[in-house]
């Protein structure tokens, strides 16, 4: 701990703002990068919803600009590209940099009392690897043979055959590979930092839940991202160098002899933990924030940590539930069904403790608190609907329908997004030394949660009614025409949801430069990230703090001076 | 275990479960002038198993969600910060709290998951995994070839053998008899497709390079839908067809004439049409 170097603050613009090794600068880089991509992915979602409600009609406003060749109409190829890139962008370039890159980078050193990450240069490299990945992904949209159209899952042989997709698919795989490399670098750095650089007295039992969540996510990143990296490499080999890892002999005129199902195993060995890679930090963040704003200790801290550890372990052994219709053997199918159901035990423990944290608290309904409670609500809906999909008897019908789309948007997209918003509203005053507007924040929350739940619950109905996903137009098949009215409702709600994000953009930009200057500890919480002055000085802590109390000692009767909170660096009375 | 299973089966086949399923499906479907909020009624034995399981999970999940919402709403309304109001200092780390956590989580697991799991296992063993033996009199075999973007179906014809001139070839149209198990062996020419029969409540991926199998028993005669559920490229959304389920007598008549038509149209030079394989037991 004494080994933490201090270098002079760089004065060169490039060293200070571009290739900075300061975790606070890198956190902000990830934040802006993630928000921009979230915006791009969001606009894509709006175009997808437009097409579904008004098939074959030109996209208003931006359509003729983006698709001049078709006068603004989306053709099926463009539509396939849009939902493929929407998924890839939201997961790898939106939520990952925001939740893990920005919030992880910001909170870990500050919350554990460290001057920086343990490997600052690796941290810088992690951001630029992701930036490069994003750039390659962006370029892939404009290559001559066409962008990727194989879905964010990129299943062969659609992603390998020439009548499947164009060379954009190769660039897509390279992009995912680079972003994966970034995640592995980040994961190694975060793990090592949490293990090695905790301030004196910051025991594992005093570690804020946010840090626990990001730590466990880092473990999953380091273990499972290499698996998708290998899948991407093999896919690139099949596409570029003529190997046949995933291409069966029957479609190669007898040559080769690979197996497309092999790819699905590799993809989901990573893909299922990926859900928890995004959700564990969310659970950690709300575990802390619910306690902070209920002015009550986090109920069952140890049980919450134990549940998160259990989910981390279980997440490695359930991936087969994504493959129930591929022809898994009966034995594998039943095992994956049982193992998946077991995850509901730790999930139940978390719900029990979150709800108990609120019970008889003194609730300050700030924007971060509303978003944290929102996570409980949307994750409740998403988690419970997971039971339909874990059960083979119901999954066989619901698989690859809109039911699945509704389910994973609520579980991993909306829950992670809400926790990200909670985190941004919460740490903004420390990050930018200005306060965000609370009225606009609450408006943002209510106009986000209501349309969002409407959209995805309508998708449950669509899926139950038999509407397959990834269809360009639901009015062509007789069977689906009678469901078109649901598409219209969902699109209206989605546009409202999209519009509500403009409130956030306005609030963020305005507060960033013209907001009210923030005080040192506006939320009155005790974790170390609020103990230094605002803005946070170079190298965070002049002296490494010493920790005496836990992160959640709210309303403890032994707190001196009649306050309801105490800093982790202070001691309780006797 | 058997006693529990029969108890569960009893509850599920009880009148209120059935009534609920009827209200849930048919009732809502008819409302709104052709706009539906639910699938068309099930037309296979799997379909009824699906409905029972679906509504059981729906009831259990709805109850759980109501509890979660109440536990969010009560503190939201009752425990808001106000002058003079204090939070309860409680870490929830007492032995009592730990026991309560364990009991509630396990109880929820048993009610929510184990119950569903038990019925699902029973269904799987009795139906989904329980592939029928192919003997011509009872089980009707079908070979499926998926391609971008069409469904090819091959019936064995009158001789009961695949790959002979009297095979019945259909495209985007499948004709099967009612009341008998229909057994499918499927593969794809190019990319992965997925044979989705919404009214039969079943679906199975159609993979290139290997043969995938599935089966179901249609219990309703009529016209139904075939869709593709796995993204397969540009015209994925147009890869649909029609499923005709005929009464046995009608089917016999149809099979004979279709088989004779097959012989008439048989062209050994046409390599595209020779995709049959030996039926795998
Ligand atoms: Cu999963
Ligand atoms: Cu398809």
Per-chain topology:
The complex is a heterodimer of chains A (574) and B (281).
Chain A: H1 13-18, H2 23-53, H3 63-66, H4 76-112, H5 120-139, H6 168-196, H7 209-241, H8 260-294, H9 301-314, H10 330-342, H11 344-358, H12 367-390, H13 392-398, H14 402-432, H15 438-464, H16 478-481, H17 484-514
Helix pairs in contact in A: 2-4, 2-5, 2-17, 4-5, 4-6, 4-7, 4-14, 5-6, 6-7, 7-8, 7-9, 8-9, 8-11, 8-12, 8-14, 9-11, 12-14, 12-15, 14-15, 15-17
Chain B: H1 2-12, H2 15-30, H3 45-78, H4 95-128, E1 140-147, E2 150-155, E3 168-171, E4 173-177, E5 182-188, E6 193-197, E7 202-206, E8 212-216, E9 222-228, E10 241-246, H5 248-265
Parallel strand pairs in B: 1-5, 4-10
Antiparallel strand pairs in B: 1-2, 2-3, 5-8, 6-7, 6-9, 9-10
Helix pairs in contact in B: 2-3, 3-4
Helix content class of chain B: 40-55%
CATH H-level homologous superfamily name of the domain at 140-267 in chain B: Cupredoxins -  blue copper proteins
Strand order of the largest sheet of chain B: 3-2-1-5-8
Radius of gyration of chain B: 25 Å
Query: What is the tally of helical segments of chain B?
Result: 5
Number of strands of chain A: 0
What's this entry about, in short?
Chain A has 574 residues and is an all-alpha fold. Chain A has 17 helices and no strands.
How would you characterize the overall build of this protein?
The complex is a heterodimer of chains A (574) and B (281). By secondary structure, chain A is an all-alpha fold. Chain A has a single domain, classed as Cytochrome C Oxidase, Chain A (Up-down Bundle). Chain A has helices spanning 13-18, 23-53, 63-66, 76-112, 120-139, 168-196, 209-241, 260-294, 301-314, 330-342, 344-358, 367-390, 392-398, 402-432, 438-464, 478-481, 484-514. Chain A contains 17 helices and no strands. Chain B has 281 residues and is of the alpha+beta class. Among the domains of chain B are: 47-78 and 93-128; 140-267, Immunoglobulin-like (Sandwich), CATH 2.60.40. Helix content of chain B is 40%, strand content 21%. Chain B is built from 5 helices and 10 strands, in the order H-H-H-H-E-E-E-E-E-E-E-E-E-E-H. In chain B, helix 3 runs antiparallel to helix 4 (95-128). The longest helix of chain B has 34 residues, at 45-78. The two termini of chain B are 32 Å apart. Chains A and B meet through helix 4, helix 8, helix 9, helix 10 and helix 11 of A and helix 3, helix 4, strand 7 and strand 9 of B. The site of one copper (II) ion has 7 residues of chain B, from loops. One copper (II) ion binds at residues 272, 275, 321-322 of chain A.
